[in-house]
Amino acid sequence: MGDNKEKDLDVVSRELSIEHDQVYMLDHGGVVGQTLKSGWVAATNTGVFVYNLKDSDLSSDYKYVELIDYTLWEDMVESTVDYYLLKAHLQLNEKTYVINGDAKGFARMVQDKSGVSVTKIERPFSRKFLGFRSNKLWKKATVISTYIVTAILLIGLFFGQSEDKNDSTQSVAKSYGDVESTETDNKLQENNNKNTPSNTTNASDDSKSDSTNNIKEEASFPEDSEEATVTRIVDGDTIEVNIDGEEQGVRLLLVDTPETKHPNLPVQDYGPEASKFAKDTLSGEEVHIEYDGPKTDKYGRLLAYIWIDGTTFNKMLLEGGYARYAYVYDPPYTHAEEFQAAEASAKSQNLRIWSEEGYVTKDGFLQKKKVPQSTVPTAGDLEFDPNGPDRNCGDFSSQESAQAFFEAAGGPEKDPHQLDGSDGDGLVCESL
Q1: How far is CA 174 from CA 11, 160, 161, 164, 251, in A?
Q2: Predicted pLDDT of residue 340
Q3: At what angle do helices 137-174 and 177-218 cross, to 10 degrees?
Q4: For 100-143, what is each residue's pLDDT tens digit?
Q5: Which of 97, 120, 95 is nearest to 43 (CA)?
Q6: Rounded CA separation 91/32 (Å)
């Protein structure tokens, strides 16, 4: 940020009034993955724009701001907002913007101007704190250690001040002589006796508070569920977990995502996206397994709901348009109604598998979805010629660039440059 925030705001406001007919909102922010010295996010009559205030003396050059990124209202398809304690991530299509101010106002503006509903990502309050967004052990350990050290320092400071006050009180008491000192000691003893029941009461209150917190934590998943650690993502609706030291395959109940590993089918559209969503959400996480009806299928896999962050991952797949509601073999099911409502919501918004009419069928998905010619990457859009020399992931500037190259070269049916690795999920160079 500039040293003079008001001056920065005046400069940005002036420049944006030249670039846009209307600027409805302007706040500090940026784009996830980019470091801006003085980033600003603006909601205008045509869309959301991110600008960076140039590092200059603001005296000679009239053009003080530079455009970093934008999303137009007319191009909007989907949007989510994820609230942190001091900021928020506002996702518009495939781009994620950082809002450091009135994120709720920006979310309302997106809905009003684009007509696209903004979905709020629900997370427990504790997961909004630094270090608790993930269940990664090293992150939690680091943050907990920091909190403990801070608490110890504050407690030490408090008791240090109390001891200084006691020393001062005792010095004053001695000056009154033995009789006054004795009376003072008696009064202090009486006060201590009175405080003892209070301490007991406080301890009881603390115990009740701990009990209440435990009840709240247990309420975030069913009491009869099993704890597990996710060890592998097979595809969007199939994972592997560790339960009490034993590896188990799990097939998610009531959902079906497009195939990426079927022996008799090609990689289906939106299958890689579902697999990536599962990896980003579940890999290495501590979850709870809830059963509903028969515990295993004919392949020996567990049939279950996967609980994480107070909801089921099954429902998350349906809400995001990654999966269809399917395989209702042994009704009634506990979560049937809410799952059907989640699917209906995604369908009404034309999210992912629902974006192409006729792609979802009663038996699954069409093997090949028609892709508009305008969306097929051309040679001019690629970093390298797909018919040229062999390439590896290290040659590309981003995963998106590698993915476009892979598809232009014939993927996912063909992979002449061996970019998809051993998992064959149709998603390449995932480390970029």
Answers
A1: 67, 22, 21, 16, 77
A2: 96
A3: 160
A4: 888 888 999 999 998 999 998 876 666 656 556 555 666 677 77
A5: 97
A6: 10
Residue 301 binned pLDDT confidence (cut-offs 50, 70, 90): very high
d(CA 353, CA 323): 7
What DSSP designation does 412 have? Answer: T
Would you call 251 a catalytic residue per the annotation? yes
Q: Is there a cis peptide before residue 332, judged by omega within 30 degrees of 0?
A: yes
Q: Which of 133, 227, 251, 338 is catalytic?
A: 251
> Exactly one of 301, 324, 352, 391 is catalytic; which is it?
301
Please indicate whether residue 232 is annotated as part of the active site.
no
Question: Rounded to whole angstroms, how far apart are CA atoms 53 and 129?
Answer: 29
Which residue is it, tokens 């009486």? 190
- The length of the chain in residues reads 432
Pairing of strands 47-53, 39-44: antiparallel
Please give the Cα distance from 22 to 44 (Å, whole number).
5
* Gap between the Cα atoms of 428 and 432, Å rounded: 9
Q: How far apart are CA 394 and CA 402, in angstroms?
A: 9
Active-site hit among 15, 78, 259, 273: 259
Q: Which of 145-149, 169-173, 228-232 is least confident?
A: 169-173
Residue with tokens 């809002």: 99
Which of 155-183 are b and which e, b meaning 16 or more Cβ less than 10 Å from the residue's Cβ? eeeeeeeeeeeeeeeeeebeeeeeeeeee
Cis peptide, bond prior to residue 412, ω within 30 of zero = yes
* CA–CA gap between residue 50 and residue 36 (Å, rounded): 10
404 contact partners, CB below 8 Å, separation of at least 6:
377, 381, 382
Is 259 catalytic? The answer is yes
- Nearest Cα neighbor of 94 from 71, 122, 124, 63 is 71
